[in-house]
Design a protein that fits this description.
By secondary structure, the chain is of the alpha+beta class. The protein has 7 helices and 10 strands. The protein has 2 domains: 64 residues, Arc Repressor Mutant, subunit A, CATH 1.10.10; 158 residues, Chorismate lyase-like (Chorismate lyase, 3-Layer(aba) Sandwich). A hairpin with a 3-residue loop joins strand 1 and strand 2. The protein is globular.
Length: 251
């Protein structure tokens, strides 16, 4: 809800700033071809009403899309779509779960091959979680599909004592950020490393790509607001499904 002063008063469940939420929803409209290349977008005040945000928030969202080359502004005419971006477009600096990311782009998020088990943490895992070597770990692995298309193979490593009530895992829906929030360990931020690796046989089978194909690998540790590491993650992503963008500025 927006007041006459232009201040957003909408109740927010998404921790992302409103202008990033608005950008994401506008991008979803373009990605699902609600607006075709060359089409003129509705006026800013109309978009503000549809998105439930203020006009300045819409203007910020459009400015990002202009920087990314997806939308252009013509003086005296308005905003126009330049091109339809890849199927799923995401910002590398925005922390969002894969199910939500897939859904906001008009695809059906699905989870497959869920495996949850206790293991002894490797040195890399325990070090990332700030635990003694060999500490018990809960490993949660699953695949994410976008309308039936394999997109991501995900492995999450959590301290075994983080979720004392193990019956909670029976209700795990695939969204780790939401799961940790309901378990009273909400994630505030994450530190990630991004690279490209050759898919081994396991990853190739999960993502249905050729053995040795290049896949995007994101390794990250997520923290609470109190700087406690709560989950160390490794995701492998199929090429051509999710494209990441980041705005780079000069110093």
């Amino acid at each position: 809800m927006t007041s006459r002063s232009g201040v957003d008063h909408r109740v927010r469940t998404d921790p992302a700033p409103l202008y990033l939420q608005a950008r994401r929803r506008l991008l979803a409209m373009i990605s699902t071809r609600q607006f075709q290349p060359g089409a003129q977008l509705p006026p800013e005040d109309e978009l503000a009403r549809e998105l439930g945000v203020s006009r300045p928030t819409v203007r910020e969202a459009l400015a990002l899309l202009q920087i990314e080359g997806i939308v252009s502004r013509r003086h005296g005419a308005g905003n126009f779509v330049n091109h339809v971006p890849p199927q799923i477009d995401a910002r590398i600096d925005e922390l969002i779960s894969f199910p939500e990311l897939i859904a906001t782009h008009g695809f059906k998020p699905e989870m497959a091959d869920l495996q949850i088990r206790r293991i002894e943490g490797s040195d890399a895992v325990t070090r990332s979680l700030g635990l003694p070597a060999g500490s018990p770990i809960v490993l949660v692995q699953r695949a994410y599909l976008a309308s039936g298309r394999p997109s991501v193979w995900m492995s999450d490593f959590l301290p075994a004592d983080l979720i004392l009530d193990e019956t909670r895992w029976s209700a795990f829906s695939g969204d780790m950020l939401e799961f940790l929030k309901t378990a009273r360990h909400p994630v505030a931020y994450a530190v990630a490393r991004v690279g490209v690796e050759e898919a081994d046989r396991t990853i190739a089978r999960r993502l249905r790509v050729k053995n040795g194909a290049g896949v995007l690998r994101i390794e990250q540790t997520a923290y609470t607001a109190g700087n406690r590491p709560v989950v160390y993650s490794i995701s492998y992503q199929r090429p051509g499904v999710i494209t990441y963008q980041v705005i780079r500025k000069t110093r």
